[in-house]
Design brief:
The protein is α/β, with parallel strands linked by helices. It has eleven helices and twelve strands. A hairpin with a 4-residue loop joins strand 11 and strand 12. The structure holds nicotinamide-adenine-dinucleotide (NAD).
Length: 359
């Protein structure tokens, strides 16, 4: 499996290094035949070649079997005409990575919740309120005069239908419940269209229950009854916000894995941003990117019928869970003492200790 690694900005290079250490341990244990290549993006290439996303990166992505994308500091980027392209948004739109899949599971001791949470947020990833990327040409945001700014939210039947299908497929393999989160009481046309498509898809999955919740209530109920959720399907921005809430309720933004998946391409990307406030100090929690990468191996394994990759995803996830269970092997954001590198080393030890012995 060829993996393209894009370390990104801020804590990106630190958590990417840690993730690669873990992947190499899994490769050594299971003989996966992983091949890595790395390309710079972000502030480094903006300085060196005038763009945050060199064209060579975009050319290479469809040629590899998976991508690991570190977080990027796109809030600091200049406008597109000055070289500031948000790699995260660009990859999702250009390669139609329409499903952002974000599992959130609470762990005893780390979660602030009174009841357990084990859910997957399936977030539409290519349209919605993301005006920097939701138009074919130009921007979905503009200023008719200096004192007025307008942003357009785009919802399509195609986008809604395919994300609903992704959610129902996932729900079929687990708790058999999908909660559609919307604001159709206010944005009646656009979220009305979203709900119409979700209901159509739901009719094809009689074994999966459909629940509908207004987003503000959903934000509250994630805290009050987290155990009642299985799969949440929602539009782009609601999914972004609710998944940060869910991750933090589970213990830390640094804990949640995440993939951006289309029909043919999958990009592993941490749920959180580039955390410039802690960048360069070696204290970031790499769990989110490590778990995202485990999800990437699982996605590729299922697509290609490669049992070893599926087993590697499970091996890595299990090792991370074991590391998080032990107060001695936690990073600072979840009350531990380990730095980024030592946490990765602890996960590698657990991979070696739990990997099946070769026949
Ligand atoms: P952030 O997610 O980077 O950080 C929020 C808080 O969580 C910070 O206090 C940070 O230190 C902490 N945090 C985040 N990840 C952590 C980890 N792995 N370990 C420990 N603590 C962690 O959000 P922000 O500060 O609002 O954004 C910073 C930059 O990241 C901005 O430029 C923003 O545009 C960008 N961003 C990028 C992505 C992405 O690449 N997918 C996503 C969100 C934000």
């Amino acid at each position: 499996m060829k993996i393209l690694v894009l370390p990104g900005d801020g804590i990106g290079p630190e958590i990417t290094d840690a993730t690669l250490t873990v992947l190499k341990a899994a490769d050594a244990a299971l003989g996966l035949g992983l091949e890595f290549e790395s390309q710079d993006i972000g502030l480094v290439t903006l300085k060196a070649v005038g763009t945050t996303l060199p064209p060579a990166v975009m050319t290479r992505i469809p040629e590899v079997d998976g991508v690991i994308l570190g977080p990027v500091s796109h809030y600091e980027y200049p406008t597109r005409d000055k070289g500031g392209i948000n790699p995260s948004g660009e990859l999702r739109v250009v390669f139609e990575l329409y499903a952002n899949v974000r599992p959130c599971r609470s762990r005893a001791e780390l979660s602030i919740l009174r009841k357990p949470m084990d859910l997957i947020i399936v977030r539409e990833n290519t349209e919605g309120f993301y005006s920097d990327r939701n138009m074919f040409a130009g921007s979905g945001e503009f200023m008719p005069d200096p004192d007025m700014a307008l942003s357009i939210r785009k919802i399509t039947s195609k986008g809604s239908s395919r994300i609903a299908r992704a959610a129902f497929e996932i729900a079929r393999g687990r708790g058999k419940k999908v909660t559609a989160v919307h604001k159709a009481n206010v944005v009646k046309l656009s979220d009305g269209l979203f709900l119409r498509e979700v209901r159509k898809v739901a009719a094809e999955y009689p074994d999966v229950q459909l629940e509908e919740l207004i987003v503000d209530a959903a934000a509250a109920l994630l805290i009050r009854r987290p155990d009642s959720f299985d799969v949440i399907v929602t539009t782009n921005m609601f999914g972004d916000i609710l998944s940060d809430e869910a991750s933090e309720l589970c213990g830390s933004l640094g804990l949640g894995g995440s993939i951006n998946a289309g029909d043919d391409i999958c990009v592993a990307q941490a749920q959180h941003g580039s955390a410039p406030d802690i960048a360069g100090r070696g204290i970031a929690n790499p769990t989110s990117l490590i778990l995202s990468t485990a999800m990437l191996l699982d996605w590729r394994g299922r697509r290609d019928g490669n049992e070893k990759l599926i087993a590697a995803g499970a091996l890595i996830e299990n090792a991370v869970e074991k590391a998080l269970e032990n107060p001695q092997t936690r990073t600072g954001d979840v009350g531990g003492k380990l730095d980024t590198t030592s946490f990765a080393a602890a996960v590698c030890d657990l991979i070696r200790a739990t990997a099946p012995v070769a026949a």
